């Protein structure tokens, strides 16, 4: 059975500048006091314990020898003794089960992400690869890139996310940490929104990163470390036990006539997440049918069934069952909200008669384009394609065309993703059961659906208010 131990170490040096060594700094140990006196152990020497105020926690374990040489790798640092013990238990369990690290123990996080993991992701869409590269360039490389992969732990990631949350959000008078300085230096060299023509939007220079954004950043390192664990490059995956900021859902606000008039007068959008009324959604679909017939079936599907942008872009022709009136959403590209992260998100969507008819016409048109293209046809397998059969390389294209159509229809602005909110709102307004709406949207909990979308449309809320008053018997005129 593998064995190991935990200890504390610091960076203190002696008068000559020489490092004192693991556990040798006198400030690391304090005497055990019993009856106001130092306790003497069985050996006749004073007993001691680790100081809670000085140094960091580390773990050391006996690893299988390499070329006949004994190895005792260290794991750390950790802020808490419990974290060090937990990491040590995991490593020892992996050693006993045969799950041992079998790769270069000196490889850094930077080397792994840039030279091993990302080059190994052969099937990434362009926009997804861009987002991965951005996360590495701005956060993981400057933040934890210098750390050896096998020594990366939960504390490293927790401190990284704490620093990320302080970007454009540092309290007045507080000095940035060295970690935050490295992140800010990386951002200073990054291209901003106006410097990325034809590509996905760049960074926003002034706004803090939202909890949802931090979770999406974490998803990148979680994927990378999951791969490293499967390949036995690391003995445990620290991304599974970090503390991530809570994401509070934002309730949509409807574009009422009063809000539209105020927006036209001031140019100010009243809320982060806005949704259209059914009448406004109808005007958008009419404009889309007239001016963007190629994308009309896709926009209609999103606006009525609540697909995410990544789901629409990644939908496969083979997963469309027109006879049954369903679409299986198996593959999704990078999403602009939370992405495909749960089993429930990989789901089956019921189409309804109108969507079935639109998609049947679209599939027939796609077949005609395939015959016309001949050898030039690119068989991407996607449901929604360009005239040559190729996939839309950038999901942002859908958002860009959407924004142009909104302007053309003279409608108040919403984001492409807000079409999903529109679909949810209108399903509930139509009297569809909350649990069914939750399942159609791919939400893990129907309580989340209820919290976000309840009583959004004014007409529905007014009808509920009137219905409540109407059942109360009164003897006087009201």
TrEMBL record:
CDD domains (alphabetical): INT_ICEBs1_C_like
A GO biological-process term: DNA integration
Keywords (A to Z) from UniProt: DNA recombination, DNA-binding
GO MF: DNA binding
Start and end residues of each Tyr recombinase domain: 271-466
Top-rank taxon: Bacteria
Alphabetized Pfam families for the sequence: Phage_integrase
Annotated InterPro entries: DNA_brk_join_enz, Integrase-like_cat_sf, Integrase_catalytic, Integrase_recombinase_N, Tyrosine_recombinase_XerCD
PROSITE patterns per UniProt: TYR_RECOMBINASE
PANTHER family: PHAGE INTEGRASE-RELATED (PTHR30349), PROPHAGE INTEGRASE INTD-RELATED (PTHR30349:SF64)
Sequence similarity: Belongs to the 'phage' integrase family.
Name of the protein in its database record: Integrase
Organism name: Nonomuraea thailandensis
């Amino acid at each position: 059975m593998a064995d190991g131990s935990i200890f504390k170490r610091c960076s203190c040096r002696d008068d000559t500048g020489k490092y004192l060594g693991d556990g040798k700094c006198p400030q690391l140990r304090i005497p055990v006091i019993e009856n106001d006196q130092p306790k003497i152990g069985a050996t006749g020497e004073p007993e001691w314990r680790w100081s809670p105020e000085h140094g960091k926690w580390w773990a050391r374990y006996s690893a299988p020898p390499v070329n006949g040489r004994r190895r005792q790798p260290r794991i750390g640092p950790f802020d808490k003794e419990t974290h060090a013990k937990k990491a040590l238990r995991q490593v020892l369990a992996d050693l006993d089960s045969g799950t041992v690290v079998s790769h270069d123990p000196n490889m850094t996080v930077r080397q792994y992400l840039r030279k091993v993991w990302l080059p190994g992701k052969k099937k990434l869409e362009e926009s997804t690869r861009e987002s991965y590269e951005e996360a590495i360039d701005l956060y993981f490389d400057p933040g934890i890139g210098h750390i050896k992969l096998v020594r990366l732990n939960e504390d490293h990631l927790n401190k990284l996310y704490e620093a990320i949350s302080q970007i454009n959000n540092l309290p007045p008078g507080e000095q940035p940490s060295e970690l935050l300085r490295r992140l800010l230096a990386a951002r200073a060299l990054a291209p901003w929104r106006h410097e990325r023509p034809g590509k996905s939007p760049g960074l926003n220079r002034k706004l803090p990163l939202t909890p949802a954004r931090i979770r999406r950043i974490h998803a990148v390192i979680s994927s990378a470390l999951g791969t490293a664990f499967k390949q036995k490059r690391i003995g445990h995956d620290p991304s599974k036990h970090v503390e991530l900021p809570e994401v509070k859902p934002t309730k949509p606000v409807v574009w009422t006539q009063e809000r539209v008039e105020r927006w036209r007068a001031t140019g100010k959008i009243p809320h982060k997440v806005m949704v259209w009324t059914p009448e406004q959604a109808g005007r958008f679909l009419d404009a889309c049918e007239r001016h963007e017939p190629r994308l009309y079936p896709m926009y209609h599907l999103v606006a009525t069934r609540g697909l995410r942008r990544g789901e629409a872009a990644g939908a496969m022709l083979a997963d469309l069952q027109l006879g049954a009136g369903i679409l299986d959403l198996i593959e999704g590209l990078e999403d602009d909200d939370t992405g495909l992260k749960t089993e429930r998100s990989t789901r089956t969507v019921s189409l309804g008669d109108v969507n079935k008819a639109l998609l049947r016409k679209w599939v027939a048109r796609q077949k005609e384009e395939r015959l016309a293209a001949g050898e030039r046809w690119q068989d991407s397998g996607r449901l929604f394609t360009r005239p040559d059969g190729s996939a839309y390389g950038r999901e942002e294209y859908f958002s860009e065309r959407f924004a142009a159509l909104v302007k053309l229809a003279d409608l108040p602005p919403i984001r492409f993703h807000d079409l999903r909110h529109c679909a949810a709102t209108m399903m509930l307004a139509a009297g569809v059961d909350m649990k069914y709406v939750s399942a159609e949207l791919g939400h893990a909990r129907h309580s989340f659906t209820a919290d976000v979308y309840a009583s959004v449309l004014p007409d529905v809320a007014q009808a509920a208010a009137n219905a409540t008053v109407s059942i109360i018997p009164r003897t006087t005129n009201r």
